[in-house]
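Practice problem 4.
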């Protein structure tokens, strides 16, 4: 290996964030050429994850490290959302008996690269949706590994969770989670509810927040929140909530 290529490799490895992915596009900005990459991989200084991405040998990369590469290097509009975001914000005050895949959300027609799906596809669930504007209620949150990931705020994540219930998440579980969300910020929640594309999610949020007597309900302007028309039947043989025109599990309607 030439001294120039060796120096480039040393600088690259020194700057590499532990347990993360480096994309070809990012490496190109560092002056790493395709010939360099071929030499580095053949010499086992780098390991290819497939077309467009690399990691350091003998290093375990989690989906969080891979997502960090997508967000920071490729500017991919994919964020951590729904239950996974709520867990990151500490809103999982109950025991889950089954492991679940991490929930990542993006606008419609945004695909995860093949290399990401090949290595972490079994650990994540990618949902394409037009539920909310892409940047509303999405901020950076640092994982225990130290990665700053674009993540839904608790307020946005609650609507994402309700939008995906009952198909992906249980309605009763969602109700239990909502009971713990006493710190919802009214201004942000108002904006999210007004711009949310799902009538079902809007109605569910208001019903569950009212049921749990969450403080946010005393500050929302309900006249500005469109609840649509017609009934929404979410379970067979459920209990009907006339105010919000929802058919829900009896556990969420009948007195405990």
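Answer key:
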């Amino acid at each position: 290996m030439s001294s120039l290529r060796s120096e480039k490799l040393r600088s690259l490895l020194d700057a590499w964030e532990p347990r993360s992915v480096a994309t070809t596009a990012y490496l190109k900005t560092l002056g790493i050429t395709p010939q360099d990459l071929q030499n580095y991989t053949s010499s086992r200084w780098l390991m290819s994850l497939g077309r467009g991405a690399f990691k350091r040998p003998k290093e375990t990369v989690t989906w969080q490290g891979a997502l960090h590469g997508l967000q920071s290097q490729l500017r991919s509009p994919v964020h951590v959302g729904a239950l996974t975001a709520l867990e990151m914000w500490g809103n999982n005050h109950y025991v889950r008996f089954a492991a679940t895949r991490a929930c990542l959300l993006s606008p419609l027609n945004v695909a995860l690269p093949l290399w990401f799906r090949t290595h972490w596809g079994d650990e994540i669930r990618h949902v394409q949706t037009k539920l909310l504007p892409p940047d509303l209620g999405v901020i950076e949150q640092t994982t225990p590994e130290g990665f700053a990931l674009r993540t839904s705020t608790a307020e946005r994540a609650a609507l994402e969770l309700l939008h995906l219930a009952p198909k992906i998440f249980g309605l009763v579980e969602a109700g239990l989670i909502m009971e713990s969300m006493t710190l919802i910020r009214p201004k942000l929640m108002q904006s999210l509810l007004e711009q949310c594309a799902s009538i079902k999610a809007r109605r569910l949020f208001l019903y569950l927040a009212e049921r749990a007597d969450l403080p946010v309900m005393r500050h929302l302007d309900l006249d500005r929140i469109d609840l649509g028309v017609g009934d929404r039947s979410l379970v067979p043989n459920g209990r009907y909530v006339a105010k919000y025109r929802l058919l829900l599990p009896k556990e969420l309607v009948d007195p405990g």
